[in-house]
Amino acid sequence: MLKTIIFLIGLSIGMMPATAAAQEKWQQRVKYKMDVSLDVSTNIIKGKQVIEYTNNSPDTLHVLYYHMYWNAFQPNSMMDVRSRELGRIAIDGRTDWDYRVADRISKLKPHETGYQKILTLKMNGRAQETELQETILRVKLDKPIAPRAKVQLDADFEARVPVQIRRSGRENEEGVKFSMTQWYPKLAEYDAKGWHANPYVGREFYGVWGDFDVNITLDRNYVIAGTGYLLNPNEIGYGYEAEGTKVNRPSGNLLTWRFNAPNVHDFAWAADPDYKHITKKIREGLTIHVFYKISPLHLQKYFSALPARVKTSYNNNAGLFIQNYENEWLQLAGKMEKAFPFIERNFGKYPYKQFSFIQGGDGGMEYPMATLLKGAGEGVVYHEFLHSWFPMIMSNNEAQSAWIDEGFAAYAEDKVMAFMNNDTSGFVHKDNYAAYLKLARSEYAEPLTTHADQFRTNYGYGRSSYSKGAVFYEQLGYIIGKQKLELTFQELYRKFKFRHVDHHDIIKVAESVSGMQLGWYGGYWVNTTNTINYGIDSLWQEGTRIKVRLKNTGQVPMPIDLMITFKDGTKHLVHIPQYLSFGYKAMEDSSMKRTVLEPWKWTQPMYTAEVDGNLINVQLAEIDPSQRMADINRNDNRLEIKW
Hints:
- There is one protein chain.
- Among the domains are: about 405-525, Neutral Protease Domain 2 (Neutral Protease, domain 2); about 535-640, Immunoglobulin-like (Sandwich).
- The chain is about 25% helix and about 30% strand.
- It is built from 14 helices and 35 strands.
- Strand 1 (about 30-40) and strand 2 (about 45-55) form a beta hairpin.
C-alpha cells in the first residue's frame, strides 16, 4: 500500500507546473563599447570604454568595482605569492603549484610584466574617485545608483600585455603572439549575494550579462580571432570575407576590426600574423572557425620538454609530433560537425551563429563563442566547447561554484568522447569516479562550497571541481533515473538560458522533472565532504523468501539498487528508495523484473530487503551494478555465492 501512495505522490508532484526554479531573478545588465589599439612592438594597448550599466537590483549602489586582471602578472602579486606558497606542498611526489604559473611571475623582468590602468573614469560626465588595490579597482561614487537606474561610465585605459603565464599574455609556448583574455577593465558582478570583487589569484570568473561592441586597431598583417561577429569582413579578409568577394582593405599600416557580441558576459581575442583560418558550416546558422599556426621552432622545444612516455608514442620523432599536431587542428571542424547534433540533442541548442577554436594561452580556457587552446587534442576540444553551456549560456559563479561548470564539462566530455568513439563498453565516467574516490579517501577533500581560490591545495581544487563535480551529475541520474537526468539538462537550458544559475536552481529543476525531493542530495554532496558507504551484511533464506541485510556505514544516505542474479541468468532488481526523496525513480530498464520496497530511513544503519525465491538458485547479490553511486568502498557491495 505504501508503494502505491509514494507513486501517487511522486506523480502528482511531477504534474505540478514548474515555478520556483526560474522565476525571474534580477541580474545586472551592461553594454560595452570599446575602441582600442594595440602596438605590437611595445605590447601596449590603449583604449576608450563606454559602459551603459543598468542597476536591475532592488539595492542602491554606492560603489562599483572593476577587475584589473593583468596587475596579477607582477612580482609579489597575490597570484605570484599564492603559487609559490602552494609550491611548498608535495602531493604524490609532485609540487602542488600550478606548473603553468609556478614561480615564473617572481622572475619577470620589468618589461615582461603586465599592468592595467584606468586613466580617467567618469559617471554621467562626472569624474569619480577611484582606489586601485592590485587587481581590483574600487570606485566610490559621487552619486548613488538607484534601483532600476541606468548610468554611463566613460573610461580611458592603458595596459601592457604580460609575457604569457596564465591564460592571457604574449608569445605563448607554441609561438602565438597575443592571447588577449582578461584584457579590459571589467565591471564586477553584483547579485543577490552582493558584490563579487574577486581578486585575480588564479581561478576563473563571473561576469555581467550584456552586449559588446569592440573595435580593435593593430598592425594590418595580424589575424584576429575571438568572441563576437566581425562586422567588416570584406575590409578585413583573412578568411572572414564572403566567398567570391574581393577584399577591399583600407590603406595604411593599421587595420581596424569591428566586432559585435550580443548576450555574453566576457570578450576574448587572440592575434598572430601567421594564423591559418579554417571555416566550416556545420548546420544551418552555425559556422565553426579554427585558427592555428605551425611554428616548428616552438613545437620542437615543446616536444623536447614532454615526458619520455609521450615522446615514445611518437617514436621520439619531433617531426611526427608536429605532423600529428597539425592534423588535429585540420580535423577539428569535421569532428565537431559529427559531435554537434549529439551535444545539442542532450544539452540544448547552441544559440550563437559561430564558435571559434583558437590556438593560444596555456592549455584550454573557455570564453563566450570561443576557446583558447594549446593544441587541439580531442578531449580538451570537447571539454572547452561544452563550457558553452556552463558557464556561457547558463552562467554560474566560477569562483564560488567552479564545480557546476567544470563538473558539467567533465561529465559531458565523457559522454561525447564515448559517442564519438562508438564506445559502448560500459561505464564512461569511471576515470572521474576514480579520481573523486582517491580525493575522498585523502586529507585534501574540502566542500564544493569552498571558494575556488581558497582550496588548501590545487590538487583538492582540481579533483573537487572536475571529478566530484562530474560525479554530482551522473549520480543525480542514479537517484532520479537517466531519462529524468536528460530532461533535467533540457529544462535547465529552457529556464536559465542567458541567466545566472546556482546549484539550488539545478536541484529545483531536477525536483520538478522527477517529482522527488532532492535538497538532501545537494546538501550532502555540495556542502560537506561526507562519503557514501553501503555494503551487504548477510544473506539467508526464510520460508519462501530470500532476505538480504544491508548496512550503511557512510555519512551520505542514498537510494539503493540491489541486483539479484540467479544461476539461470535471470536478474531481479530490488529498488530501495531513500526516504528523504519522498518518491523514487522510474524503471530504467524494462527488460528485467523490478520490485520497489519501503524507503530506507537515513537514521537506520541496517535494512533488510526480501524477494521471492530460493537462495540455492542465487549466484550473485550486488549493490549498484551500474557503479553510478560513488561508494567509498565497493569491496562489500558484491556477494558472489559459490555452491
